[in-house]
Amino acid sequence: MVTRRRPAADPLPEAAPSPSPKRAGRRAPAAAPALPAVVAAPPAVALGAASMTLSSKNYSSWSLRGWLLARFAGLEFREEMLSTDNADVRAEILLLAPSMLVPCLHHGSGPAEVRVWDTLAIGEYLHELFPEAGLLPTSRAARAHCRAICGEMHSGFSALRSALPMNLKARFPGFKVWSRAQADIDRIVQIWTECFDAYGGPWLFGEHRTMADAMYAPVVTRLQTYDVRLSDRRLIEYCQRVLAMPEMQAWIADAKLEPEDIDELEAEF
Ligand SMILES: N[C@@H](CCC(=O)N[C@@H](CS)C(=O)NCC(=O)O)C(=O)O
Predict the structure, then answer these.
(1) 67 pocket-lining for ligand 1 (C-beta < 6 Å)
(2) Within a domain: residue 68?
């Protein structure tokens, strides 16, 4: 099934510091340093249980991204798997997401339920709930950089995605990558190289995994599936590191248990 992508959601604006309270008739001493506004993280538990609608673990790269984001954030959630062989069940579950696409995060229930049905929006939502998880880097410049490369993944690389669909169980040794897909790979290598030059690894934005590592994880699996070789040792090791993450290992193990030959899914997904 060929799926249509949607335009990337606008990133959330930086939180503006709240104005400091003023008292009539009193002025703060001129030399007093401005105190940073303290913004308490919203209590995640107050929203109640969370679940995420997911599709095939072998084929669905967007499901993998959303799932990794939730795992990186430390959200406890139930997996709501789309049945790939029962069209009615599939349609019913997909209707829970206004976009009819996966992943879709459901948080809480009743009128307070929050539904987030786009991977970038899921990342931003989780960052607001769990700022200490570091889904976005701490420096404003690095945060902007991170959002930019996540957006580029979200809205681009269509040649790579259609010519080299995610397929964790398959291996295509010596796969011939055509020129437009190669151009996408070259651009991704450039993005990763700039990240390693700027932040020094071991993850794209330095010491901690961010949204970007989740967004590019399916690319890492594609390089492995289609036998695409990289030359920069730092990037080769980065790919090994991503594949060795315990979360990734768990996802791949589940993918291997899925039934074979889902013809419908042997396409951009
Ligand atoms: N831009 C969306 C893309 C989501 C998407 O294309 N999901 C595909 C699966 S990877 C899908 O739900 N296809 C319809 C289906 O599975 O029936 C996002 O960021 O979440």
Answers:
(1) no
(2) yes
Residue 208: give its domain's CATH number: 1.20.1050.10
265 in Cβ contact with 3 (< 8 Å) = no
pLDDT averaged over consecutive 10-residue blocks of the chain (269 residues)? 35 35 39 48 67 95 98 97 75 77 94 95 98 98 98 97 96 97 98 98 98 98 98 98 98 93 49
Which pLDDT belongs to residue 98? Answer: 82
Q: ∠ CA(171), CA(173), CA(179), 5° rounding?
A: 105
53 and 122 assigned to the same domain: yes
Q: With contact defined as beta carbons under 8 Å apart, do 151 and 11 qualify?
A: yes
Burial of 226 (0-12, 13-18, 19+ CB in 10 A): buried
Is the minimum distance from the CB of 119 to ligand 1 under 6 angstroms? Answer: yes
| pLDDT value at residue 249 | 98
Integer Cα distance of 124 and 21 in angstroms: 29
Domain around 109: 47-132
Are 143 and 250 in a shared domain?
Answer: yes
Ligand 1 binding pocket mutation candidate from 1, 2, 60, 62 (most atoms within 8 A of CB): 62
Task: Return the pLDDT at 83.
Answer: 72
Q: Where is the domain boundary, 132, 147, 165? A: 132
Q: Which residues fall within 8 angstroms of residue 82, CB to CB, at 6 or more apart?
A: 53, 54, 55, 56, 89, 90, 93, 94, 102
State whether 163 and 194 are in the same domain: yes
How far apart are the CA of 113 and the centre of ligand 1, in A?
21
